[in-house]
Amino acid sequence: MEFQRDMLDRGRSLDQQISIQMSIFKNLEGQRKSIEENDDVRQQFEDAISTGNYEKFSSRCYFFTGELEVVSSAILQCEFDFCGTQLTDLWDLDLDADLLSHSVMETESGGAIVFVWPSDAKNATRSVQSFDQIPTESKGDIFVQYCFLQSENTYFSKAWWNRLPPTNKDLIRRLANSLYYDGGAFKACDTKLVNWTMASVDTI
Fold first, then answer.
1. Are the C-beta atoms of residues 184 and 100 closer than 8 Å to each other?
2. Cβ proximity of 33 and 77 under 8 Å
3. Is the pTM of this model over 0.85?
4. Any residues with CB less than 8 A from the CB of 166 and at least 6 apart, and which?
């Protein structure tokens, strides 16, 4: 962004230069705020790990059976919930964004989707509650869509990709290449992305 700040407005009219510089300034301020929020949550996690005290955190774990061919792990700002409802306006830098972590982990019978968040983060709680509202048979499919849309730290096996029908491959490409998400509910694919069958839920 700093490089773009010096280059993007060259040769433009004065009005265009002002508009471009204001946009870049707002993006830079947003990035700085995001880094501050991430650093704060990271410190909370590190303190909890070093002391073994996790009382300040909540978690919800969705165990499933099936092949573990897609994995993901990230800490994300809760701008929208899983139903596509806006929780906060990230463009309003006076508001602090709640952060929610997710991980996909291997288990003996398949895997688990694990959410962890600071207990006082209301929007993170609302986001997980919205995941509960998704029909059980659609949870795995919609979670995978969420991962490809929101997290670059999402990986999959070659065999999984090769088995996908063309329509599902097109969907994954669109999600992974999306520059901006402005809400809207996810819709489960007719041919499910993963064969995950939700078995149980555990809350801590």
1. no
2. no
3. no
4. none
Buried b (16+ CB within 10 A) or exposed e, 144-156: bbbbbbbeeebeb
pLDDT, tens digit, 9 for 90 and up, residues 44-94 = 889 888 999 999 999 999 999 999 999 999 999 899 999 999 999 888 878
Q: What is the pLDDT of residues 14-46, one digit of tens each?
A: 666 666 666 766 777 777 877 888 788 888 889
Same domain? For 179 and 79 the reply is yes
List residues bridging with 77 in a β-sheet.
99
Expressed as residue numbers, the domain containing 173 is 57-203
Tell me how many helices (H) and strands (E) the chain has: 6, 6
User: SS3 breakdown of the chain: % helix, strand, coil, rounded to 5?
Assistant: 45, 25, 35
Residues 104 and 161 in one domain: yes
Residues 21/13, Cβ–Cβ less than 8 Å: no
Total structural domains in the chain?
A: 2
Same domain assignment for residues 89 and 176? yes
Q: State the DSSP code for 190.
A: S
Whether residue 85 sits in one domain with residue 34: no
Indicate whether 88 and 132 sit together in one domain. yes
Residues 69 and 91 in one domain: yes
Are residue 72 and residue 154 in the same domain, yes or no? yes
